[in-house]
Design goal:
Radius of gyration: 17 Å
Bound molecules: arginine
Protein name: arginine deiminase
Order of helices and strands: EHEEEHHEEEHEEEHEHEEHEHEH
Shape: globular
EC number: 3.5.3.6
Pathway: Amino-acid degradation; L-arginine degradation via ADI pathway; carbamoyl phosphate from L-arginine: step 1/2
Strand order of the largest sheet: 2-1-15
Number of helices: 9
Catalytic activity: L-arginine + H2O = L-citrulline + NH4(+)
Structural class: alpha/beta
Oligomer: single chain
Organism: Keguizhuia sedimenti
Distance between the termini: 20 Å
Strand content: 15-25%
Helix content: 25-40%
Length: 279
């Protein structure tokens, strides 16, 4: 199956407000032309192996480029995001309309329950399991509702560093059941949960230096991994597991607190079955 990824071109992208530490000091410090070049390079690289589907960019919602936050997709269902910050709530109707037009079954959470989609909720690539980060953006109480609506087990993980405010900034399930993650971004109990669920030989711990370069914020399609930057050590580690690492600079988007994974939403998310996990 050819993977499909949902993206939004940075036509109106800029740092216009501060809602995470990466954005501090960056208001009006962006270069939109450079952002466009970096985004095109990412889209072109992914587009060689998968299909890219774009939503038209809207003015007044500069973070709309971060389509990972549009919602959480599983099969033909999407749970729409309810952004914590007013600035991003304006994106919700555009995403809702797009998913409905594409024929997704659109599900919503109660209005007072912040949930930031695939920024904070990531499907394991081997287990029938949804990992959900909380502590900064998505509300802990979403976990039970997501589990009920999507009929899937949810493992919550507490994020403890404000630089890693979304789960996808520090945690990336990879094909084959591997997990690339930055352990220090999680509290001790969550680190223990991860270790209990993922065997040591499938865990790929990422150093602070790599994590601060958004190495965990990676797009994975089959054996291919697209990311902003990975050190030679991390690249070797991933290659030794059979992955092909594509580095594509995304510095303009890091000024807003996002990189490769945040700029995409995988639309092809078949359900993993317990029998497949055992195989
Ligand atoms: N400026 C955006 C925000 O703070 C960046 C979102 C990055 N997206 C992500 N999935 N981590 O909401």
């Amino acid at each position: 199956m050819t993977d499909r990824f949902f993206m939004c071109a940075p036509r109106h992208f800029e740092v216009a407000y501060v809602i995470n530490p990466w954005m501090e000091g960056n208001i009006a410090h962006g270069n939109n032309k450079k952002a466009m070049r970096q985004w095109n390079a990412l889209a072109r690289a992914i587009g060689k192996l998968a299909r890219i589907e774009c939503i038209p960019a809207e003015a007044g919602v500069p973070d709309m480029v971060f389509t990972a936050n549009a919602g959480l997709v599983l099969e033909n269902k999407v749970v729409l995001s309810r952004f914590r910050h007013a600035q991003r709530r304006l994106e919700e109707p555009y995403f809702e309309k797009w998913f409905a037009e594409q024929g997704f079954h659109v599900l919503t959470l109660p209005p007072d329950m912040p949930f930031e989609g695939a920024g904070d909720a990531l499907l394991d690539r081997r287990l029938p399991l949804l990992w959900m980060g909380y502590g900064h953006r998505s509300d802990f109480s979403c976990a039970a509702l997501l589990s009920e609506k999507l009929e899937i087990e949810v493992q919550t993980l507490k994020l403890v560093n404000s630089r890693f405010y979304h789960l996808d900034t520090c945690f990336c399930p990879l094909e084959g059941g591997y997990l690339m993650y930055h352990p220090a971004a999680f509290d001790a109990a969550s680190q223990a949960q991860i270790a209990a669920r993922i065997p040591a030989e499938y865990r790929i711990p990422v150093s602070a230096a790599d994590a601060f370069e958004f190495a965990c914020n990676a797009v994975n399609s089959g054996r291919n991994i697209f990311l902003n930057h990975a050190s030679p050590a991390l690249t070797n580690e991933l290659q030794s597991r059979g992955f092909i690492v594509h580095q594509t600079p995304l510095s303009e988007f890091m000024k807003a607190g996002g990189a490769a994974k945040c700029l995409t939403l995988k639309l092809t998310e078949p359900r993993k079955l317990a029998s497949q996990a055992a195989a």
